[in-house]
Specification:
Elements (H helix, E strand, L loop, with lengths): L7 H40 L12 H7 L3 E6 L1 E12 L5 E10 L10 E9 L10 E8 L7 E4 L21 H27 L1
Parallel strand pairs: 4-6
Antiparallel strand pairs: 1-5, 2-3, 3-4, 5-6
Length: 200
């Protein structure tokens, strides 16, 4: 096979694609290290017994700094509808956890003054009856707003929530990196085979 018989444009495109895939694999390896450091920080937060204020109106970065710490909030009145989603109780059983927004100042519904509370666990998808009160627990990530307080003890006659666990955070970046490296190798092998077939 001579150099002049190698299609220059196609070769450049394949090399560019392979380098891109290798770069993505390396980036995923970097993300894996970042995620491991983040999980280690969250695990250290769980061992810290000193409570912190619930992050009302905080930025995403400010919320991240207090995730998994103990906190408390005074729920003056429920805000909006209950959100009932799949979850586990303290014994690991599957069921439903119930989440509600809480007004923390008199007659307000502004987002920066709403605390989200996971009241507890049950097998019943119907939301409980609860009019508010003092809630203690741990701060965890939340779909609505940046954080929710996992109530401990539970509220409204519900069963105890599973304790928030940083180990539940997905860290599959190594698998993604291996995939990108595999794709790069596959592209190279296919292109070499195509060049050999073209030579015949």
């Amino acid at each position: 096979m001579t150099a002049r018989r190698v299609p220059i444009f196609s070769t450049i495109m394949v090399i560019a694609a392979v380098l891109t895939m290798v770069g993505l694999g390396i980036w995923q390896l970097g993300r894996r290290g970042e995620k491991e450091a983040l999980i280690a920080r969250y695990e250290a937060a769980i061992s810290n017994a000193e409570p912190v204020p619930y992050p009302l109106g905080a930025s995403e970065a400010e919320v991240e700094a207090v995730l998994y710490r103990r906190s408390a909030v005074e729920c003056l009145f429920p805000v909006g509808e209950w959100r009932s989603i799949a979850g586990r109780n303290a014994k690991g059983a599957s069921g439903i956890v119930h989440i509600i927004g809480c007004g923390t100042t008199t007659a307000t519904t502004e987002n920066d003054e709403i605390a989200y509370v996971q009241a507890g666990w049950s097998r019943d998808p119907n939301p409980p009856q609860w009019n508010g009160g003092t809630v203690t627990g741990r701060i965890a990530p939340n779909a609505d707003g940046f954080a929710r307080l996992i109530a401990d003890p539970p509220l409204a006659g519900l069963e105890p929530n599973a304790a928030p666990d940083p180990g539940d955070l997905p860290n599959n970046h190594l698998a993604y990196a291996v995939q990108w490296f595999f794709f790069a190798l596959t592209a190279l092998v296919i292109y070499v085979l195509a060049l050999r077939r073209r030579r015949r």
